[in-house]
């Protein structure tokens, strides 16, 4: 098991502090040379589509989430956020929406805080913490937030359910794009990846499933059961889950002994249960197939959460995708492919969403092609037949707009573009592009410009026209 970034020695802390002291003038401002100037960290992470999401001035290393859920929908939380200041801070904020904080400690000492409600558009919600003593750039801190509330069924900017979605028999948690603040205080941008621990206490008889792997067996006392999970691979906040239901567990083993842990709600109809079982049975084969295209599976486990309740979509929650009602074969292939493209290699901003959805759709087509020759060409031909002028062609894939994050074009035009790119540079160069993209950007964040640069390098061809034609221009490309 890897050593957590939160486990730091005193020596490392002293070393980090002395680094900052040496860097003095760079982080200091007007005033005496080398004197820090403490400012308020931004309440924006800078995403063009969701400016209220994320924050400035620090980088989170680890979230330790103690969550207690009650059948009436109440959620009590104690979050310990381990962060490193990246500027001299007099205050900083965490995203938190629809939940009320009752206490905030910084390094064990009570801190002053205020909560700013969501804006008129329903986005945002900030917990602003004033720190004394102030935080010096480069230093590590532990922020403990105690909070509580009734999340209900939060809605995203398009009216879809997301975040901590409460149902009569449990909770389905799917945060994309900026729904994580509906259940924990967070720096909710895809660029601030962190490790996570979860302790989820639920009414006895319910099962709570999160990312990563279980730590020990669940512990029951006084009619409530605590489920503990640890996710040691860096993870973007939109990929965190802690779903609660009446799940039956099954396990499989993937390539090289990879643990696959599946949780399927016991109340599925016989036909949905059969479809789900048939799809999940293919997971070890699918992992081996994608490893052949992309290189080794990037995380320490995989599996599924299939909930009887529905938010209307599936999500590639890290190591353990959630499915609404049923897990179909192509959906399982899609959410698995996302573990490499989306989860390990993540977008820098939400405007880059096609890098997630176009790649996962292309890879899902490749899986289907491996089962039925001709499938990929069929999909390309289907896309190519969509008439010019259709919205499918007019939305920009490099700037689709917040309301179009999950538009058909983002998925299918993105995937068809990758087919066109493959045909242009050839199978060998395209195969190298896929493997290099995933290897060089593992646990990182990317942009479309990064993809263009790598594609040109690998193929030794100029490709900016092809990229512009397919991704940016608001008309149908030469197909
Ligand atoms: N990223 C998910 C997938 O492609 C889809 C999320 C859809 N979200 C939504 N609010 N409609 O598997
Ligand atoms: Zn997807």
From TrEMBL:
GO molecular function, one term: alanyl aminopeptidase activity
Keyword Signal carried by entry: yes
Entry annotated with the keyword Zinc: yes
Keyword terms of this UniProt record: Hydrolase, Metal-binding, Metalloprotease, Protease, Signal, Zinc
Source organism of the structure: Geodermatophilus nigrescens
Organism lineage: Bacteria, Bacillati, Actinomycetota, Actinomycetes, Geodermatophilales
Designated name of the protein: Aminopeptidase N
Residue span(s) of domain Peptidase M1 membrane alanine aminopeptidase: 329-470
Residue ranges annotated for the Aminopeptidase N-like N-terminal domain, each copy included: 61-239
Location of region: Disordered: 25-50
């Amino acid at each position: 098991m890897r050593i957590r970034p939160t486990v730091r020695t005193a020596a490392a802390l002293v070393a980090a502090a002395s680094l900052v002291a040496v860097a003095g003038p760079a982080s200091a401002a007007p005033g005496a040379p080398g004197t820090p100037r403490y400012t308020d960290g931004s309440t924006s992470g800078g995403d063009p589509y969701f400016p209220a999401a994320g924050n400035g001035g620090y980088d989170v290393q680890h979230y330790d989430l103690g969550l207690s859920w009650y059948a009436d929908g109440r959620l009590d939380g104690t979050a310990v956020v381990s962060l490193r200041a990246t500027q001299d801070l007099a205050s900083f904020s965490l995203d938190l929406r629809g939940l009320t904080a009752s206490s905030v400690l910084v390094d064990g000492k009570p801190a002053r805080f205020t909560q700013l409600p969501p804006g008129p558009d329903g986005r945002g919600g900030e917990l602003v913490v004033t720190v004394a003593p102030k935080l010096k750039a480069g230093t590590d801190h532990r922020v403990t937030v105690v909070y509580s509330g009734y999340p209900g069924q939060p809605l995203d900017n398009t009216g879809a359910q997301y975040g901590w979605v409460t149902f009569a028999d449990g909770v389905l948690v799917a945060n994309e794009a900026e729904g994580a603040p509906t259940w924990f205080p967070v720096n909710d941008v895809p660029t601030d990846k962190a490790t996570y621990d979860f302790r989820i206490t639920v009414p006895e008889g319910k099962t709570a499933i999160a990312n990563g792997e279980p730590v020990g067996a669940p512990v029951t006392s006084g009619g409530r059961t605590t489920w503990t999970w640890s996710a040691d691979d860096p993870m973007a906040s939109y990929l965190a889950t802690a779903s609660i239901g009446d799940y039956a567990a099954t396990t499989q083993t993937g390539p090289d002994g990879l643990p696959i842990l599946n949780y399927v709600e016991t109340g599925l109809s016989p036909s949905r249960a059969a479809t789900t079982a048939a799809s999940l049975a293919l997971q070890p084969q699918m992992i081996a197939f994608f490893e052949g295209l992309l290189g080794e599976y990037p995380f320490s486990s995989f599996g599924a959460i299939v909930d009887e309740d529905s938010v209307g979509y599936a999500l590639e929650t890290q190591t353990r995708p959630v499915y609404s009602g049923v897990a179909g074969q192509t959906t399982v292939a899609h959410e698995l492919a996302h573990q490499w493209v989306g989860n390990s290699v993540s977008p820098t901003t939400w405007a880059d969403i096609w890098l997630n959805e176009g790649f996962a759709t292309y890879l899902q087509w490749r899986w289907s092609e491996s089962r039925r020759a001709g499938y990929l060409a069929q999909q390309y031909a289907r896309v190519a037949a969509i008439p010019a002028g259709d919205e499918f062609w007019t939305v920009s894939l490099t700037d689709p707009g917040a309301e179009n994050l999950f538009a058909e074009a983002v998925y299918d035009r993105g995937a068809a573009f990758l087919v066109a790119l493959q045909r242009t540079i050839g199978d060998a160069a395209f195969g190298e592009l896929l493997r290099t993209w995933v290897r060089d950007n593992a646990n990182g964040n990317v942009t479309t410009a990064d993809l263009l640069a790598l594609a040109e390098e690998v193929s030794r061809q100029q490709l900016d026209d092809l990229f512009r034609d397919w991704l940016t221009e608001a008309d149908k490309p030469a197909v």
